[in-house]
Specification:
This protein is an alpha/beta fold. The chain has ten helices and nine strands. The chain has a nine-stranded mixed beta sheet, sandwiched between helices. Helix 4 (117-131) packs across helix 6 (150-160).
Length: 304
């Protein structure tokens, strides 16, 4: 369905297409087999004639489709202070080949933009998807949030607060387009920021979310575990057994809260795995989890 792809290029990049084969002639557009990837698509809110340079994303989708596409947003890590959407590039093509619209966004970083800026950015991205759902032929009720480390935390906090109005992006909420986060997956993401981390990790957490200040302080406010409620989407927690950045006990409370509220919580522990395990150690269970909730058939192959 090449017309859908042309619409994508027009909508997300504001490009004027010229010539008989415009795809190959466009800067920032790559075709790989039956997939097209568009780089640096803006999703943020323009203020005073400008938009933050980090509010951009890479978008991949299949050229042909027979029905509305589910969406997978895959969010990079970096301690809320580093990292880049390009770190997630290797996941985009497999997801698009599986019949998904795949997105890897950048977001604002500490120390210049501490919490809740990154949360607001991911929520702005979801609003963007809602506003362009028809043009892109995507299903706004089948969106998965997947993230690594700090990105896993952002996936969870955005997914768990989606129906609360808490930590929403600034603006008139009545103008936001509703979308449904169907499922969440976190790889090495912290679920509880309210307690101190190891000395080499704590400065990153403090630089983004502030100092430890009790069960009702900012660190608690930005903790996904605080916001679990019965209507939340199911979550998968993938964690390395030997994670020395976000210890295993940081996610145990999330499992307890999910069980208490009847929210599906699937855990996959990678034996002897580090903070971010090798992709092949969790690719299959992650694909199965996404398949179950998006109604897709995803395979990352041997090298996601």
């Amino acid at each position: 369905m090449i017309t859908v792809m042309m619409t994508l290029l027009l909508v997300v990049s504001g490009l004027v297409l010229q010539g008989e084969d415009p795809i190959n002639a466009l800067d920032g557009v790559e075709r790989s087999g039956d997939v097209i990837i568009v780089d640096d698509v803006p999703y943020g809110t323009v203020k005073n004639g400008s938009m933050h340079e980090r509010q951009v994303m890479d978008v991949a989708m299949p050229i042909s489709q027979d029905s509305l596409l589910p969406v997978v947003v895959i969010i990079h890590g970096g301690g809320w202070a580093g990292g880049d959407k390009s770190d997630m590039r290797l996941f985009l093509e497999p997801l698009a080949n599986a019949g998904c619209l795949a997105i890897s966004p950048n977001y604002r970083l500490a120390p210049s933009d501490p919490a809740p800026a990154a949360i607001h950015d991911i929520k702005m991205l979801l609003d963007w998807l809602g506003k362009h759902a028809e043009a892109l032929a995507i299903d706004p009720n089948r969106i998965a949030l997947v993230g690594f480390s700090a990105g896993g935390h952002l996936s969870a906090i955005v997914g768990m607060t989606g129906d609360t109005g808490v930590l929403d992006a600034p603006g008139d909420s009545s103008q936001f387009e509703p979308v449904t986060v169907k499922c969440i997956a976190s790889i090495g993401g912290p679920m509880d920021l309210s307690k101190p981390f190891a000395p080499r990790v704590e400065p990153l957490v403090k630089g983004w979310a502030g100092a430890v200040s009790g069960t009702r302080g900012p660190r608690s406010l930005y903790s996904p575990v605080r916001w679990v409620s019965p209507n939340d989407p199911p979550i998968m927690l993938i964690h390395g057994e030997q994670d020395d950045i976000v210890p295993l006990d940081n996610i145990s409370g999330m499992k307890t809260q999910c069980d208490r509220h009847g929210v599906g919580c699937r855990i996959h522990i990678v034996d002897d795995g580090p903070h971010i395990p090798a992709p092949q150690t969790f690719a299959e269970p992650l694909a199965d989890f996404l398949d179950d909730h998006l109604g897709s058939t995803i395979s990352f192959g041997t090298q996601p």
